[in-house]
Amino acid sequence: MLELTMAAVSAADAGATAGMLMADAPSDPGAVLRLGRDKSVCRLSTPDDWLFISRVHLEFLCGPEGTWQVTWLQGSQPDPSSEVRLTVGEYAQPLTYGGTAPLPRGGSGEIIIQDRTAPRSVNVGFYHEV
């Protein structure tokens, strides 16, 4: 099972944990969780006016062996309005626009989507339970 916890943080809310959203999915091949502004397809949705987040920004997909990966889907703009970082333990890496990264089996970490134009971010904690 993959468990996600999302918090939308602006400068005024720094340090606050109110308004956290959670989603999970079994580690069955083909299982999908999405994050973005489009509430009709995303289990984790951000405020409608946070345009640095695409309609469907991140997609978490379970592969054939029950392992998960995250993809930063390319939106309608050629250049993104945000940056995405994946952190597992002490190791942090940027996720490229349109890129995919594996999530550690039985591990946890955080994905941070940072607005390039304002002091706000979307922080997504993940835990892969085996």
Q: Helix share of residues?
A: under 10%
Gross geometry: globular
Q: Enumerate how many helices there are, as a single number.
A: 0
Mean pLDDT: 91
Descriptive account of the structure:
The structure is a single chain. This protein is 0% helix and 48% strand. The protein is mainly beta. Strands 2-1-11-10-7-8 form a six-stranded antiparallel sheet, with no helix packed on it. It has a five-stranded mixed sheet with strand order 4-3-5-6-9, with no helix packed on it. Strand 7 (82-88) and strand 8 (91-95) form a beta hairpin. The model has no long low-confidence stretch (mean pLDDT 91).
Brief overview:
The protein is mainly beta and 130 residues long. It contains no helices and eleven strands. The relative contact order is 0.24.
Key structural traits:
mainly beta; 130 residues; 5-stranded mixed sheet
Summarize the helices and strands and which ones pair or pack:
Elements: E1 2-10, E2 21-25, E3 32-36, E4 44-45, E5 58-62, E6 68-72, E7 82-88, E8 91-95, E9 100-102, E10 108-115, E11 120-128
Parallel strand pairs: 3-4
Antiparallel strand pairs: 1-2, 1-11, 3-5, 5-6, 6-9, 7-8, 7-10, 10-11
